Design the sequence.
C-alpha cells in the first residue's frame, strides 16, 4: 500500500481556555485512549461524551493521537471539536468497522502532506492481518504534517499495541521502528500510543528508545504530577505506570509534559488519562 498524498484542507497546558492556549508557543500534542463507545452505564459514551468535549475544547491540542475510537464515536468528537479540526484514520479491520488509531489535527496549525496505515503483523500491508498470536488486530497510522506556524515538517505515528501478548508487542515495536527508519531521516518524528506496558519496565519501551526516539516525559523541562495512565474508572494511582506515551526524535524540545486528570462530577472522559506534551522545534 503506497503512502497517500493529501491536499491542504486540572489544565495540562496551564492555559485555562483554548483561546489563551493559542497564544502560547509550541505544538500541543495529546495521546488519548478514548475507551470505545459503549452503552454500559455508569461510563457509557453518552455519559462520557460531554466530559470529553469539555476536555478537548479546553486543551485544544494541535495534534491528537487516539486509540480505541469507533467510527461513530470519532464522528462525535469531530462534531464536538468543530470545523477547526480534521482527522485521518481507518478501522483496524479496514473501512469504518472496528476500532481506529485515528489522528486528529488542527487545520489552522497543521496540514497533512501524506499518510499511510500498516498492520502490526508479518504482512503489514494486508488489511486486518494478525500473525503474532494477538487475538485483537493491531495497526498504526502515520501522517507527514507541515506545521503552518513554523514551516517545519514532521511525521506523526499513532498506534495501540496488544493488551495481552508480549511477543506481539515486541514484534510490533520492532516493526514500528523499522517503518520509522524507512521514512525521511531529516524529518522529526512524534509517536503517540497506548503501548500496554509500563515505561522503563519492559523490553518494548527499550526497543522504541533504541530505535532512535526519546520519551517526552523524561526529556521535558517541566512536568505535571505523575499518575498511572490507565485507571479503569477507579481511584487514580499517584506515581503509577505510564502505559500511554508520547515519544519524539531527540532534536524535538519538550517544554512541558502532562498527565491530565480532568473529570466532571466524578465522571472521567475515558478509562485512561490523556498524556500531553508541549513541543518545539
Sequence:
Amino acid at each position: 500500500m503506497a503512502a497517500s498524498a493529501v491536499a491542504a484542507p486540572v489544565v495540562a497546558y496551564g492555559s485555562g481556555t483554548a483561546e489563551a492556549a493559542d497564544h502560547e508557543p509550541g505544538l500541543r500534542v495529546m495521546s488519548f485512549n478514548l475507551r470505545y463507545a459503549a452503552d454500559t452505564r455508569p461510563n457509557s459514551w453518552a455519559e462520557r461524551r460531554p466530559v470529553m468535549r469539555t476536555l478537548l475544547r479546553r486543551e485544544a491540542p494541535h495534534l491528537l493521537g487516539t486509540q480505541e475510537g469507533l467510527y461513530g464515536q470519532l464522528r462525535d468528537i469531530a462534531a464536538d471539536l468543530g470545523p477547526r479540526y480534521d482527522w485521518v484514520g481507518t478501522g483496524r479491520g479496514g473501512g469504518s468497522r472496528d476500532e481506529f488509531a485515528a489522528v486528529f489535527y488542527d487545520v489552522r496549525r497543521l496540514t497533512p502532506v501524506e499518510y499511510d496505515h500498516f498492520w502490526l503483523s508479518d504482512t503489514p500491508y494486508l488489511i486486518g492481518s494478525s500473525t503474532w498470536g494477538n487475538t485483537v488486530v493491531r495497526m498504526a497510522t502515520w501522517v507527514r504534517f507541515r506545521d503552518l506556524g513554523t514551516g517545519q515538517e514532521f511525521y506523526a505515528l499513532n498506534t495501540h499495541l496488544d493488551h495481552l501478548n508480549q511477543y506481539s508487542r515486541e514484534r510490533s515495536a520492532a516493526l514500528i521502528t523499522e517503518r520509522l527508519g524507512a521514512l525521511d531521516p531529516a524529518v522529526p518524528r512524534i509517536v503517540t500510543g497506548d503501548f500496554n506496558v509500563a515505561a522503563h519496565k519492559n523490553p518494548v519501551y527499550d526497543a522504541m528508545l533504541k530505535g532512535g526516539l526519546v520519551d517526552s516525559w523524561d526529556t521535558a523541562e517541566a512536568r505535571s504530577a505523575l499518575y498511572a495512565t490507565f485507571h479503569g474508572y477507579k481511584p487514580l494511582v499517584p506515581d503509577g505506570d505510564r502505559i500511554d506515551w508520547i515519544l519524539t526524535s531527540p532534536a524535538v524540545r519538550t517544554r512541558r509534559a502532562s498527565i491530565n486528570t480532568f473529570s466532571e462530577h466524578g465522571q472521567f472522559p475515558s478509562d485512561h488519562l490523556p498524556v500531553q506534551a508541549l513541543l518545539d522545534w
Remarks:
- Residues 26-280 form a domain with the Deoxyribonuclease I; Chain A fold (CATH 3.60.10.10).
